[in-house]
From TrEMBL:
Pfam family, one: zf-C2H2_jaz
Record-annotated C2H2-type domain positions: 35-65, 162-191
Main location class: nucleus
PANTHER family: GASTRULA ZINC FINGER PROTEIN XLCGF49.1-LIKE-RELATED, ZINC FINGER PROTEIN 200
Keywords: Metal-binding, Nucleus, Repeat, Transcription, Transcription regulation, Zinc, Zinc-finger
Keyword Nucleus: yes
Name of protein: Zinc finger protein
Lineage, uppermost ranks: Eukaryota, Fungi, Dikarya, Ascomycota, Pezizomycotina
Length: 243
């Protein structure tokens, strides 16, 4: 078999390879050209020839829809994950975000007019995940549903600053301390990656979704996460639970 290194294609016969080289626009280069491949320094007669080459050649961090070459695969991945190629809207207030995790962070923070926050999301996901595939079984006090809050008073003053009851952190104001106590800082890690051998744990659903979006464990591709999330967060979570 014959291999075309420029296009990363294999041919069963030498004649087939020669026909490809003679006829393919990717090989119609000229000594002087405005169309140069940044990855391999080849010149091409037309923009379309350059585009065909960059689209098919291996080792080229090239965005086909944008016709744009990037300096590394990492930079290409960041570009593909940006709002340029993915747009996700909050199902309630329709605010736009770059990806599914952005929508969940928005809801968890309580910034949405719908009134959703991380507690409501956690309750919803735990009811959905009855077999504890992505959540951990937790022991809770009856009647609290995980919403019990710790509120600091002036008694938290230690003579210098307001000190957290649960950790050594200190704050210059009582408001700052109570903001700390209302944050996820002291929440339990109730979420876990369901991928065998991964073992990553998270306090928030958004942390788990960001992990899956990164494709670091191979549970789902970034595009799959966005596609499922467009049909609702429950649909995306259901896909993670069922594998």
């Amino acid at each position: 078999m014959e291999h075309c290194g420029t296009c990363d294609r294999w041919f069963n016969t030498y004649n087939g390879y020669l026909q490809h080289v003679n006829n393919s626009p990717a090989h119609q280069s000229s000594p002087v050209s405005d169309w140069e491949c940044d990855a391999c320094d080849r010149d091409f007669a037309t923009e379309n020839s350059l585009h065909q080459h960059c689209s098919s050649a291996s080792g080229h961090p090239y965005c086909i829809p944008c016709k744009r070459m990037f300096s590394s695969e990492h930079n290409l991945m960041q570009h593909m994950h940006s709002k340029t190629h993915s747009s996700m809207a909050c199902p309630f207030c329709k605010t736009a975000f770059a990806n599914a995790s952005g929508v969940i962070i928005h809801l968890e923070a309580g910034r949405c007019s719908s009134g959703w926050d991380r507690h409501k999301i956690n309750e919803t996901i735990r009811k959905l995940d009855r077999n504890n595939v992505i959540t951990k079984p937790m022991i809770e006090m009856p009647g609290y549903g995980g919403r019990m809050e710790t509120i600091a008073t002036d008694r938290a003053w230690n003579g210098y600053r307001f000190e957290c009851y649960l950790c050594p952190r200190e704050f210059g104001s009582l408001t700052g301390l109570n903001s700390h106590l209302k944050s996820p800082f002291h929440d339990q890690e109730i979420y876990r990656c369901p991928k065998a051998g991964c073992g990553r744990n998270y306090k928030l659903l958004s942390g788990l979704v960001q992990h899956v979006e990164s494709e670091s464990c191979g549970l789902m591709r970034f595009g799959q996460v966005q596609q499922q999330a467009r049909h609702g967060i429950n649909n995306m979570v259901g896909r993670m639970i069922t594998g």
